[in-house]
Amino acid sequence: MRKVIFFVTVFVSVSLLLVACHSPETTSKEAFFTWEDSYHRPVQLDTAPRRIVSISPAITEVMFLVGAQEKLVGISDFCKYPPETERITKIGGMHNINFETLLSLHPDVVLIGSMVSQKDVETIEKMGVPVVCIVEESSLEGMAEMMEVIGRITQCEDKGNAEAEKWRAKIAARKASAPNPEERKCVYYVVGFGDGGDFTAPKNTHIQEIIELAGAWNAGDSLTGWNISREYLFKVDPDIILVRREDYDAFVSRYPYTLLNAVKNNHVYPIESGWIDVVSLRNMQAVDYIREICGVRKES
Asked: CA 1 to CA 275: how far, in whole Å?
């Protein structure tokens, strides 16, 4: 009888153990992060990443903003701001990633922007590293969503949300204080010049948004491409010309640009390329710089 009781007890105990092992409550685990990324791919991170590689200057800047910089173990060659990025391992450019270096960093996730090819994404994922694409939108307002998403990924959600709201508030304040359309000055940003042709920012670009948010109007707002003819440039005859700081001397001394009224009247201004060439947090510095040049009230 004792043997029967013993075997029954063992059988019941094992049965309960097996049921517990197959219980959904013990086998299913909610993922840390799920999202449809900017390439419309469903992505999932099972656990919070502690080692992150960023292949986007904008993403790198936002990680510093939300206080997640200590999780950065690798960045692209183009991630040069803030200055603290100098101490972080570089893994190459957007189009020439050093996959060996990247893999040696043992990242939990790689965060990319719009400049990384699908082929490179597939290569990274075949190495067993998840990739999340957070595209640098052509709109400054898109930076706010980037702050929120990166805040979630890095467990700095409160900081990411707070910074996103501050960013949206800055944009709203500058829109509210913009001058009337007839009072706006025409601003021409020199993307390229010389024998290879003239280039400026066309409509529907973040550069146009920067200029408009500054209370001016973009000389290229009727263009659909980046190329601008000399005839069109002289017809527009912009009030203000912005040129990269490193190109300033060459531009203001070169014919036929010396015939433009803005050059004649010393209304050509150097600007940091990092403020304006790519979507980033520093775009707001470009906005306020242009506002100051155009005599528009600067917002805090």
From this structure: 86
